[in-house]
Every structure is written in C-alpha cells, then in structure tokens.
Amino acid sequence: MRVTSEVGNGTTVCLHLPRHHGEADGGDVALTLTEVARAEQGETALIVADEPSVRMRVTEVPEDLGYTAIEAADSVAGLKVMQSDVRIDLLVTDVGLPGGMNGRQMADAARVGRPRLKVLFITGYAENAILGHGHLEPGIEVLTKPFPMEALASRIKDLIVSG
C-alpha cells in the first residue's frame, strides 16, 4: 500500500494486491512436504537470514525437499558463497539483512554470475517493497512473513517445477 498526499490536491491511496498467473487451485490449498516436488540429487540451496532461529527453521524445508543446504548469516557471507564455485541452485534469502546489502541487492549481484539462479525472497515487508514498481523475473518468488512451513515448501516447489 502506498499513500501520498499533497496540500490542495488531496490524497492518493494505491493498494497493490498479488496476481496469480495460472489456473485457480481447487480443494485444500495446504500441502504436506510429501506432496511437494523434490530437488534433484546434488542440488544445493543457500539460505541467508540474520536471525538464527529463522535460518534454522527455513533450512529444514529445502533439506526435507532433497536439497543440500548451506547457511549464511548476512549478505557479505551469502555473496561470498555465491561468488565461489560451490554449486547453488536455489537462494532463499531474507530481504532485510545486515552486511551492507539487502537480500534483493545480494540476489541481483549473485545473478550476474548465475543468471539462472532460482531465488525465493522471504520478507516481513509488503511484496511491493521488493518489487518497487516493477516485476519479478522468472525463477524469482516472494513469500511474506509470517508463513506456515507448507507455504515455504509450496513456493520452493514452484521454483523447482519452473526449473
């Protein structure tokens, strides 16, 4: 949501709602991890989050889906891994990170050398804060906190399937 106000001109309220690209889901939306597509052998996920408890919980989901997981506590450590020759197929990153860059900036820098990298942003901010006024490229998803682990698994599944 964005609100702007100008003296003498009034107030403008822009409300941005998520858009679904595809068919409407039928039945129960909640998924169990056993119903979710799995990573191929050897695929690796990098999880970047500054809060240790969040990082630990988020790391469990890609591991349960067959990914090897690597953890980083800030954007500097995350980018260092991304700039190495370690295989990384999926980046799951919080948007608000210490270390001089936010998660979006780190992902953009990582995708320079890894243009096909799949990215899942997790954020406590509105999705529009990630997008600005643009859109996300294919292979990039956003999940807004708080979220159930099934929603995280579902977003990762979407990224695996879109492969």
From TrEMBL:
MF terms (GO), sorted A to Z:
kinase activity
- Residues in Response regulatory domain copies: 44-160
The record, for InterPro entries, names: Bact_response_regulator, CheY-like_superfamily, Sig_transdc_resp-reg_receiver
Question: Which Pfam families would you find in this protein's record?
Answer: Response_reg (PF00072)
Residues modified as 4-aspartylphosphate: 94
In its UniProt entry, what is this protein called? Sensor kinase CckA
Instruction: Report the source organism.
Output: Methylobacterium thuringiense
Q: Which UniProt keywords apply?
A: Kinase, Phosphoprotein, Transferase
Family matches, as PANTHER family:
STRESS RESPONSE REGULATOR PROTEIN 1, TWO-COMPONENT RESPONSE REGULATOR
* PROSITE patterns membership: RESPONSE_REGULATORY (PS50110)
